[in-house]
Amino acid sequence: MNVGVAHSEVNPNTRVMNSRGMWLTYALGVGMLHIVLLSIPFFSVPVAWTLTNVIHNLGMYVFLHAVKGTPFETPDQGKARLLTHWEQLDYGVQFTSSRKFFTISPIILYFLASFYTKYDPTHFILNTISLLTVLIPKLPQLHGVRIFGINKY
Q: Which residues of 38-65 are buried (b: 16+ CB within 10 A; e: fewer)?
């Protein structure tokens, strides 16, 4: 009997994005962020959409691509401490449903932000740069790659 063991996964980080209701919670969180930004009186609709996109992508970059390790104590001999959450997701298997969802969601948000800002050049450039910062690290060719040694340890 293992006392204090609450899960059967070697690394619970690998399956958390597939848990029941996670995608709905994620979408509702993004929607709530947008509603909060729209409720600020001096933000116009284009500014609120751009801020929603940039804040979402910044959060996604930090939590999926910058932070390494796991908040759980895992019996994997420290293998997870060198991997980002994106690299741990679905045990590193590419093109799973959760990976596709978290790749498509910033693209959809980008299209919405671009449409509601009426493709204003300033907003468009900010939204495009923001999108690229979260899409490029998701490429299968960059799995486990540390460019210029950034985030190596």
A: beeeeeeebebbbbbbbebbeebbeebb
Residue 70 CB partners (closer than 8 Å, separation 6+):
11, 12, 13, 80, 81, 88
Closest listed residue to residue 80, CA positions, set 8, 22, 14, 19 = 14
Region at 70 (left for phi over 0; alpha for psi -120 to 50; beta for the rest): beta
The sign one gets for the Cα dihedral 19, 104, 138, 45 is negative
| Sign of the torsion angle spanned by Cα atoms 75, 147, 126, 96 | negative
Largest Cα–Cα distance of the chain, in whole Å?
62
Asked if 67 contacts 57 with a C-beta cutoff of 8 angstroms, the reply is: no
Q: Where are the domains of the chain?
A: 13-142
Mean pLDDT calculated for residue range 96-111: 94
- 34-84: pLDDT as tens digits: 999 999 999 999 999 999 999 999 999 999 888 887 776 666 666 777 788
State whether the Cα torsion 42-49-61-85 is positive or negative: positive
Report pTM.
0.86
